[in-house]
Amino acid sequence: MIWKTKIPYKVNCFTWLLAKETVLTHENLNKRGVHLCSRCFLCEEQGETINHLFLHCKWTTQLWQMFTNMREITWVKPGRIKEVLKCWNRDGNAGRKEERWKMVPSCIWWTVWLERNQRCHEGKQSNIQRFKLKCLALYYFWCKQVVLDSSEVISTNIDWL
Ligand SMILES: [Zn+2]
Which domain of life is it from (predicted)? Predict the structure, then answer.
């Protein structure tokens, strides 16, 4: 699923690293001997593990809910990234919209990673509305690339939004 998704190649690679749980979060830096006082940059309430930051953090949860609400599905979030990649299309009942739906997890993860790094390295943070908007804007942009590839019109591309 990772390599067939029509998103920027660097995000495919990032998703692959996430599935292998090797992205350099505090959890993985600690494993490599870089000892930090681990704190999630988004909620500032829990330690920064891959599964917390990209799945269970209350900020990230809002992004998952945004998409599952638009799709009108009740989704039981799996515990790990790899499991999300396995079940996402099936649980979303994607059908003919599969190509677009398939992009959602990477879109969420890339948005979270950019926000996390902006907070970590630049000391700037978006509020929750802006965070959600950034995710939607990225999704729209990626869909548009797919639309251009498949000669569809944008309006049908996001008809479920
Ligand atoms: Zn958090």
Answer: Eukaryota
Q: How far is the CA of 38 from the centre of ligand 1 (A)?
A: 11
Distances (CA, A) of 120 to 38, 106, 113: 12, 20, 10
pLDDT value of position 27: 75
CA of 149 to the centre of ligand 1 (A): 36
Residues near 125 by beta carbon (within 8 Å), at least 6 away in sequence: 115, 118, 119
Q: Which of helix, strand or coil describes residue 47?
A: coil
The predicted structure's pLDDT at residue 23: 76
Alpha carbon of 52 to ligand 1 centroid (Å): 6
Q: What is the mean pLDDT of each run of 10 residues along the chain (161 residues)?
A: 81 90 76 76 90 95 94 88 86 72 94 94 92 92 65 50 48
State whether residue 90 is helix, strand or coil: helix
